[in-house]
Design goal:
This protein is an alpha/beta fold. The protein contains six helices and four strands; from the N terminus they run H-E-E-H-E-H-H-H-E-H. The protein has a four-stranded parallel sheet with strand order 1-4-2-3. It is globular and about 35 Å long.
């Protein structure tokens, strides 16, 4: 700043390096969405944390042993879950996960509107997809996160 005049001189004040005032060139700069969404995966049984962002349960069936109050959800979005037939076929068998992922992606591709609330939440900030499966690596939320990330980039 030059003597409190409100004008920028292009330096940080120590004259060592220029400052980029990108927001002056693009008024929407500060509000531009991130290149990749901040999506976390978490079991519904794990404690809610203040930095979870939007907490969305993506299971078709309500998880056993947890009340709706204790879940601290922003949304229960069943439409993004695999069909009952696919879920039963998979049976949480890690050996079937690659085939399950392909089939589930096909289901999601056939119903892109199922991703809309998840994309909206990801655009607004951090999104935590909640699931009940014990296996944190081989479950539908892993595939769903990839689908949301892909749609986020294409949107």
């Amino acid at each position: 700043m030059n003597g409190g005049s409100g004008q920028h001189d292009g330096t940080r004040g120590d004259s060592s390096s220029p400052v980029c005032y990108a927001e002056e060139a693009d008024p929407d700069y500060m509000w531009a969405r991130p290149a990749t969404p901040d999506i976390r995966l978490k079991r519904i049984y794990d404690p809610a944390e203040p930095d979870d962002g939007a907490r969305i349960l993506v299971d078709r069936v309500w998880p056993r042993g947890i009340s709706k109050t204790d879940a601290r959800l922003d949304l229960w979005w069943r439409d993004a879950a695999p069909t009952p037939e696919l879920r039963k076929w998979f049976g949480h068998d890690p050996d079937k996960f690659a085939e399950f992922a392909q089939r589930y992606r096909a289901e999601l591709d056939a119903a892109p509107e199922a991703l809309r609330p998840l994309l909206d939440a990801a655009r607004a900030g951090r999104l935590t997809l909640l699931f009940a499966a014990r296996d944190r690596t081989h479950n539908h939320a892993v595939v769903l996160r990839e689908a949301v990330e892909t749609a986020f980039g294409a949107d």
